[in-house]
Specification:
Number of helices: 10
Shape: elongated
Distance between the termini: 32 Å
Order of helices and strands: HHHHHHHHHH
Oligomer: single chain
Radius of gyration: 16 Å
Helix content: over 70%
CATH superfamily of the largest domain: DNA polymerase beta, N-terminal domain-like
Largest sheet: none
Low-confidence stretches: none
Amino acid sequence: MLPKFEELAREFEFLAQLVEMIGDNPFKARAYRFAAAKMRERGGEDVTEDAISRLSKEKGVGKAIVEKSRQFLHTGRIEKIEELKSQIPLPLFYLAKKPSIPGRELHRLYCDLKELPPGEIVAVLKEQATELGLENDFFALLEEKISSSN
């Protein structure tokens, strides 16, 4: 079964959150969000080579977006996300999946917490849960992901 553009759009939104978190070039995050918006316009359409080719003709959708879209089509993943996963502490990596948390806030948390062990990062996030809008189910999922990665 082929992935849908809505799924691919979510991956690009997540990638935008991650690059904002680490303080990468802000134009990358903007390009990823723009691409995600164009993909959302296609919504339930299947991601195929032809569909990616049509997407590539959209003004503002460059080669890097097309390459990452093809990676997703063929592997179900975007390599850049996997690369960033190895660089970002797991609690912060999963926090970036929360689109309600602004990039500036993610970057602040990353700078403040990146050197701490995962358990301490989770403790700090729990202290700030109300301000960040984090629910208990987020922490249950987070603790499950951390324990399964050990």
